Amino acid sequence: MTPIAEVEGRRLTLSNLEKVLYPATGTTKGEVLHYYAATAAEPLLAHLRDRPVSFLRYPDGPDGQRFFTKNPPPGTPSWVRITPVPHHDNEEAGQIVVGDLASLMWAANLVVEFHTPQWRAGAPGLADRLVFDLDPGAPATAVECCEVALWLRERLAADGLEAYGKTSGSKGLHLLVPLEPTPSARVSAYAKGLAVQAERELPDLVVHRMRRALRPRKVFVDFSQNAAAKTTATPYTLRAGAEPTVSAPVTWAEIQECRSPGDLVFLAGDMAERLARYGDLLGPLNEPDRGRSIPDTA
């Protein structure tokens, strides 16, 4: 019998709860739903609030089919919020906004990664966050990403901007900066300028171009996710991999003290203790009046 759950007055059908989604740890779909409901819901919802969501779906686990979608899936309940996000080829397009626990659990039941843009519903292309995705090219690892993150933190601070870090949930790091609402194109130009400067000052460590032939042994400072059409893994989302890794906020002390890639790998089972110890390290991103303006040039 397919379980029916009531969440905030909404009836949800939860399917295949015993299905193993993460083979390396034997983590089941039921355990994934428990993580989202009991551990991550409060901080995750704060970071999803008012942001159109894109889903990376992997219903058969990370070794099965994966597909990325911005469109509301077939069968989306009428009570799930959909916000207009016009595209150049579809002026009537819309995307889901996950604004409450019922919507979160409905989406999690589809087995998804949550990805969000740097802008909010109703203000597409007006970013209130800047993001850098630090992606290591083997044999570089998260250790080298941490070195680059520390350089970027100081460079951003010189412009009056405060950076916060999280793991990508894969190999690298994400840096996020709260901004006054700023056109995405201007944020992208500023971020690109810093990436170019990082490559110039750390030539043996950093590359700012995406071409894979340039990336071995270096950290790719990806500024492109600041474009209005791009998205980044939302804080606290699970990622599709062998283990249930989390895109987890980290302290600057953890970044500074990282000596091994495993130092910054966090699983779903680690997050309750981390939240109890630190709270939401990225909470300031959601605080009113926290955002600052970027300079005209990098």
Automatic annotation (TrEMBL):
Its EC number is 6.5.1.1. Residues 28-281 form the DNA ligase D polymerase domain. GO terms for molecular function: DNA ligase (ATP) activity. It comes from the Bacteria. Keywords: Ligase. Signal peptide: none annotated. This is Bifunctional non-homologous end joining protein LigD. It is an enzyme of class 6 (ligase). Pfam families: LigD_Prim-Pol. InterPro entries: LigD_pol_dom, MtLigD_Pol-like, NHEJ_LigD.
